[in-house]
């Protein structure tokens, strides 16, 4: 460049004289460019968020390298072409440093304070872009024609694109990963269909994504491969992931009993979250027994083997305490005679039935022999929690006695939702209206917990009432009281005085004439 200063060379500042003697630049241009690059670097260092100032190492390195080409020309002071080339190199390094400092100030110091950290790969692309921009500016400044410049760059781009097509594919795939955010650093992902290929993302760079698997293996997966794969993210959108365990129990143990034992056992186990709550469902009926699917949630994905193992330990101990043995797969063939229930166990079961029936107020008119007769012909049935025993409006000709458990009686009236009338426990009964009159069920009864009930049929009552018709009157009074209690529970009305018409209904239903 030609000098336009009116001051003599010997009046210049020492740094300007040094720049002019080595590079031929105008003193003000050299000083301004260097000072601008230094100021831009300082601005970024003072405005960058904590933990991001390390990004200044690249523009600082470029600025520190700027004097190197000038120092090389000192070895060959008579080489004019070398001095010119060194001048361009210095200009390129200073301009690259200045542009990178400005870029970092805009993107990191300003933008990241508003929208969060910018991925490293995006910063790398932008920094490369400003370096290329500085190179083009210096070449343009040196007098290279625009047509030659763009023609040469197009050819060079085509050659590099063909030679580096795989690398460029990984770069663009990495950019897509950062733009779509299918995973982030620290996420646990499965990066192909192999369930063993699960790892924690530790780095995402230009070419590949690096993960550490559960086996502590360091795996480098090309970004292009990830861009085409179905990625399972175990950490997003919620930090917890679900684990599945399968437990088989004997057929003679009710599923809901086993499920309650398992849920209680895994509560507080290592890594098992209270929310979302764990659950257990009956999954399948196998040859060994009933298979239960235990579903629990954990945030300890990297320790999932320990989470599963300790949960299994607790389940085993809990089942063992309850006398439940996990069946094993066997192929043994046994030829045995059928084992009939012992007389003692049958008698004990019968005595318990009789004891329950004797406490029912509806059966107070019945004598001990009649109660035992009902106990002998009653059927014992088991219902799961939430399972309806009878439905309102269904036909029926039997009544039920709660042997074990707890049930809830609800009634639905037109225009209103279900109304809970009462809760029945051991020794209570329901369904007597259908048994005595054949009328449809007046309420829905649902097991609150696993419950066992005794069902008394119309035929068993008909035999007793045929021999003692006088019992019909007492049964009719008891039924009227039950109807009044039901009406009062639904509408809040006063108790209804028993009326005699129900006695005729009972007689007609059982086919017993009035004496």
Write up what this structure looks like:
The chain is α+β, with helices and mostly antiparallel strands and 515 residues long. It folds into four domains: 9-163, no CATH class; 181-233, SH3 type barrels (Roll), CATH 2.30.30; 241-321, Alpha-Beta Plaits (2-Layer Sandwich); 343-510, Jelly Rolls. Helices cover 48% and strands 17% of the residues. The chain contains 17 helices and 16 strands. A five-stranded antiparallel β-sheet has the order 4-3-2-1-5. A hairpin with a 5-residue loop joins strand 12 and strand 13. Helix 1 (14-23) crosses helix 2 (27-47), helix 2 packs parallel to helix 5 and helix 5 runs antiparallel to helix 6. The model is unreliable at 1-12, 22-27 and 492-499 (pLDDT under 50).
Structural class by sheet pairing and helices: alpha+beta
Report strand %: 15-25%
Whole-number count of domains: 4
Radius of gyration: 44 Å
What is the number of beta strands?
A: 16
CATH topology of the largest domain: Jelly Rolls
CATH architecture descriptor text of the largest domain: Sandwich
Task: Note poorly predicted spans.
Answer: 1-12, 22-27, 492-499
N-to-C terminal Cα separation, in Å?
Answer: 136 Å
Major beta sheet, strand line-up: 4-3-2-1-5
Largest sheet: 5 strands, antiparallel
CATH class of the largest domain: Mainly Beta
Q: CATH H-level name of the largest domain... which superfamily?
A: Jelly Rolls
Mean pLDDT: 76
The portion of residues assigned to helices is 40-55%
The quaternary organization reads as single chain
Assign an overall shape.
Answer: elongated
What is the number of helices? 17
């Amino acid at each position: 460049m030609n000098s336009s200063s009116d001051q003599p060379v010997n009046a210049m500042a020492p740094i300007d004289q040094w720049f002019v003697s080595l590079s031929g630049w105008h003193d003000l241009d050299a000083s301004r460019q260097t000072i601008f690059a230094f100021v831009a670097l300082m601005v970024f260092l003072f405005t960058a968020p904590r933990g991001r100032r390390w990004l200044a190492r690249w523009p600082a390195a470029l600025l520190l390298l700027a004097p190197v080409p000038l120092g090389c020309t000192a070895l060959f002071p008579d080489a004019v072409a070398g001095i010119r080339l060194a001048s361009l190199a210095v200009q390129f390094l200073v301009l690259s440093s200045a542009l990178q400092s400005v870029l970092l100030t805009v993107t990191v110091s300003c933008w990241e304070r508003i929208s969060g950290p910018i991925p490293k790969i995006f910063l790398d692309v932008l920094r490369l872009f400003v370096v290329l921009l500085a190179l083009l500016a210096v070449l343009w400044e040196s007098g290279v024609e625009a047509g030659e410049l763009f023609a040469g760059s197009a050819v060079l781009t085509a050659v590099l694109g063909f030679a580096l097509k795989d690398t460029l594919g990984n770069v663009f795939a990495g950019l897509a990963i950062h733009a779509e955010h299918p995973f982030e650093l620290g996420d646990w992902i499965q990066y192909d269909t192999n369930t063993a290929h699960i790892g924690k993302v530790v780095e995402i760079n230009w070419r590949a994504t690096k993960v550490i698997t559960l086996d502590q293996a360091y795996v480098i997966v090309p970004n292009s491969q990830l861009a085409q794969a179905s990625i399972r993210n175990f950490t997003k959108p919620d930090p917890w992931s679900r684990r599945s365990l399968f437990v088989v129990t004997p057929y003679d143990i009710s599923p809901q009993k086993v499920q309650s034992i398992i849920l209680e056992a895994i509560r507080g186990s290592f890594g098992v979250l209270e929310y979302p709550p764990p659950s257990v469902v009956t999954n399948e009926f196998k040859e060994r027994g009933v298979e239960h699917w235990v579903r629990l949630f954990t945030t300890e994905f990297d320790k999932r083997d320990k989470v599963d193992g300790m949960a299994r330990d607790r389940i085993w101990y809990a089942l063992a305490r309850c006398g439940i043995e996990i069946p094993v797969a066997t192929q043994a063939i046994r030829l045995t005679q059928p084992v009939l229930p012992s007389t003692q166990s049958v008698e004990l079961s019968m005595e318990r039935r009789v004891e329950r029936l004797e406490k029912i107020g509806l059966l107070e008119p019945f004598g001990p022999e009649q109660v035992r007769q009902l106990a002998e012909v009653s059927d014992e049935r088991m219902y799961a929690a939430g399972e309806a025993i009878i439905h309102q409006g269904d036909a029926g000709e039997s009544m039920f006695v709660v042997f074990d458990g707890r049930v809830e009686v609800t009634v639905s009236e037109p225009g209103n939702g279900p109304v809970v009338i009462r809760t029945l426990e051991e020794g209570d009964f329901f369904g007597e209206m259908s048994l005595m009159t054949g009328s449809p069920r007046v309420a829905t009864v649902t097991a609150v917990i696993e419950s066992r009930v005794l069902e008394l049929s119309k035929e068993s009552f008909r035999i007793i009432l045929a021999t003692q018709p006088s019992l019909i009157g007492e049964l009719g009074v008891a039924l009227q009281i039950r109807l009044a209690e039901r009406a009062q529970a639904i509408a809040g009305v006063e108790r209804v005085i028993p009326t005699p018409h129900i006695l005729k209904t009972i007689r007609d239903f059982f086919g017993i004439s009035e004496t």
